[in-house]
From TrEMBL:
Residue ranges of the TM segments: 9-27, 33-52
Keyword annotations of the record: Membrane, Transmembrane, Transmembrane helix
Organism superkingdom: Bacteria
Name of the protein in its database record: DUF1145 domain-containing protein
Keyword Transmembrane: yes
Native source organism of the sequence: Ectopseudomonas toyotomiensis
A Pfam match: DUF1145
Residues making up the signal peptide according to the UniProt record: none
């Protein structure tokens, strides 16, 4: 298993925890930390989408590529080389 796949899996688990926290809020202060962390990661990935959006143009299933950048950020962009 390579490091990039492991990192994507760890980030997917983080998003699952953040989604779980959204529907079943964790006790304080953990719930707040998870919510703020998820917001920070989402804002960073939106910034990456804006900065590197030109790399995605011309790829098949553009909406799928954008969704993966929102979820995985630079980890997905490195697989596009």
């Amino acid at each position: 298993m390579n490091l990039l796949s492991f990192a994507k899996g760890a980030l997917a688990m983080f998003w699952l925890v953040a989604l779980l926290n959204l529907f079943y809020p964790f006790a304080a202060p953990l719930g707040g930390w998870v919510s703020w962390g998820a917001l920070a990661v989402l804002l960073a990935h939106v910034g990456e989408l804006v900065l590197f959006g030109s790399r995605l143009r011309g790829l098949p299933l553009l909406w799928w590529q954008r969704l993966q950048v929102l979820l995985f950020g630079l980890l997905h962009l490195q697989t596009l080389r």
